[in-house]
Design brief:
single chain, alpha/beta, Rossmann fold, 7 strands, 18% strand
């Protein structure tokens, strides 16, 4: 299946390592170059702003989905192709999943992990079968990957988690996985 739209889950902050922003910008440029539309949280700050700006600068299509409660907090992006305001976080995530062909998870905080694990859970329950890529730039997710291995080793997962979640180190590697 050709990926035409990609949900990108990431922080509304940039984090402390400049590599997070540089990989995010690289991903956005590659998405635009490959004609892959961005589906994301609609913010204009942090990595969220970086990915949207990079796709837009490359001439790509960007759909932002933001709940009413976050309009001011995440400073919704006013320069994207399409901004959709929804009533709550659950509708936001559901709409993002419905509009995407695959997902990439960049560094982020609690919300990013919520989105990752909800999408993984839906995938495991066969609600969808979309590729999910964890972009582990600068080893940001090493401890999370180790914990997921522990969940597997201790018998809490129904299948090998690596069948559901692909771990990549760079944006280029992630785009190659989608091809």
């Amino acid at each position: 299946m050709q990926v035409r739209s990609l949900a990108v889950f990431c922080g509304s902050k940039s984090g402390n390592n400049p590599l997070f922003s540089s990989e995010t910008l690289a991903l956005g440029k590659m998405m635009a170059a490959h004609g892959i539309s961005l589906i994301y949280g609609g913010g204009n700050k942090g990595l969220m702003g970086d990915i949207a700006n990079a796709v837009m600068e490359g001439g790509g299509n960007v759909i932002g989905i933001i709940p009413e409660i976050l309009l001011e907090w995440e400073q919704h992006h006013q320069g994207i192709t399409d901004l959709r305001v929804v009533s709550d976080m659950h509708i936001r995530k559901k709409m993002m999943y419905e509009l995407c062909d695959a997902a990439i998870v960049l560094p982020g905080g609690n919300g990013t992990l919520d989105e990752l694990f909800e999408m993984l859970t839906w995938n495991t329950l066969k609600i969808h079968n979309k590729k999910i890529i964890l972009l582990n730039c600068a080893n940001y997710y090493d401890h999370l990957v180790a914990h997921i291995n522990t969940m597997q080793d201790q018998g809490f997962l129904y299948e090998d988690w690596q069948e559901r979640l692909i771990v990549c180190s760079t944006a280029a590697e992630a785009i190659n996985v989608l091809s």
